[in-house]
Amino acid sequence: MKKHNFNAGPSILPQFTLENTAKAILDLDGIGLSILEISHRSKEFQAVIDEAVALFKELLDIPEGYSVLFLGGGASLQFAMVPYNFLNTRAAYLNTGEWASKAIKEAKNFGEVEVVASSQDKNFNYIPKGFVIPKNADYFHFTTNNTIFGTEIRKDPDSPVPLISDMSSDIFSRPVDVSKYALIYGGAQKNLAPAGVTFVIIRNDMVGKVQRSVPTMLKYQTHIDKGSMFNTPPCVNIYAALQTLKWLRASGGVKAMEKKNLEKAGMLYDEIERNKFFVTTIPDPADRSIMNVCFVMKEEYKELEPVFQQFASSRGMVGIKGHRSVGGFRASLYNALPAESVKALIAAMQEFERTN
Ligand SMILES: *Cc1c(COP(=O)(O)O)cnc(C)c1O
């Protein structure tokens, strides 16, 4: 049976990425060696990383003066690297979910943290509005898409101080005005590549301002200077990322992705609202994520949640169980998920409504 992969992360990747990476693991471009067994200093790998950086810049329309880095440690290491490198006295953070909270916790190791607003009072089911970013902060940090709770900020905000964002779970899902940001980072395993590589887009003039001494591996300057090759980078993950970037370009780029993602999420939210059993956990349509659609069964049907879970998995749906902090269901609709999978989930919801 065909599986419909709604996993939140690691998650679905384009077939193009899987096939080309599988081929390169056996033989990279006919050189008689695997991508797994060549030097990261070889001309073959240099070509891979150069093309990945160039495509990253092309697809996101990254202006001059920025570097694209491929690092290890996941988005979670960026939670610490960002304040390590930029927090002199105080930083401002927006708390919209579990990942944002973790970033805040790490920043507190390095200085004063001002949480400008939080949606924790309602289990992160909305995006706080009308907050003020203090002008005396070293930077302002926020999470564009809240993978766990299903809210998303799809507008690039204006900020009087350097703007830093965790885009782990919605990078390449829409056009981004990179010029507004000082730094954008994310783990690749949601929308780009297998787990093990972290992307960082950094404005080069951000480095060298912090007063503390930072270990070499944790300094952005190190990785900018060495083109992500200060030490051995996660080579095969970068190869896989390159394949996804090629697929993105061939599929029309981030504008086309946004259109497709809006359609996919739109039809699923419509069905959740129409279906008598289900209700979305995010009341304001403007705050709803187009990447991670969270929904539960209405109070009076709560006991049917495990029944629907079973029903859906018997029809090939994988990964729709909600995160333990929300319960119910979460369908992750990343770029590589075809509209047919969303239609299959909707069909299962409709059949469940008819037969229960
Ligand atoms: C998954 C995720 C993370 C954690 O990423 P790791 O690479 O596992 O450290 C951080 N932020 C967001 C928004 C995520 O979705």
Features of the shown structure:
single chain; about 350 residues; alpha/beta; Aspartate Aminotransferase, domain 2; Aspartate Aminotransferase, domain 1; 2 domains; 7-stranded mixed sheet; 3-stranded antiparallel sheet; 9 helices; binds pyridoxal-5'-phosphate
CATH architecture of the largest domain: 3-Layer(aba) Sandwich
What's the helical proportion of residues?
Answer: 25-40%
CATH topology of the largest domain: Aspartate Aminotransferase, domain 2
The top-level CATH class of the largest domain is Alpha Beta
Spell the H/E element sequence: EHHEHEHEEEEEEEHHHEEHEEH
Strand content: 15-25%
In words, what does this structure look like?
- Helix 4 links the parallel strand 3 and strand 4 (112-118).
- The chain has nine helices and 14 strands.
- It starts with a strand and ends with a helix.
- It has a seven-stranded mixed beta sheet, sandwiched between helices.
- The radius of gyration is 21 Å and the shape is globular.
- The chain is α/β, with parallel strands linked by helices and 356 residues long.
- The relative contact order is 0.17.
- The model has no long low-confidence stretch (mean pLDDT 97).
- The protein has helices spanning 15-26, 43-60, 74-86, 98-107, 220-225, 235-250, 253-274, 305-314, 339-355; strands at 4-5, 66-71, 90-95, 112-118, 140-143, 145-146, 151-152, 163-166, 183-187, 198-203, 278-280, 292-297, 317-318, 329-332.
- The chain has two domains: 15-250, Type I PLP-dependent aspartate aminotransferase-like (Major domain) (Aspartate Aminotransferase, domain 2); 252-355, Aspartate Aminotransferase, domain 1 (Alpha-Beta Complex), CATH 3.90.1150.
- It binds pyridoxal-5'-phosphate.
- Residues 9, 74-76, 99, 143, 147, 166, 168-169, 187, 190 line the site of pyridoxal-5'-phosphate (PLP).
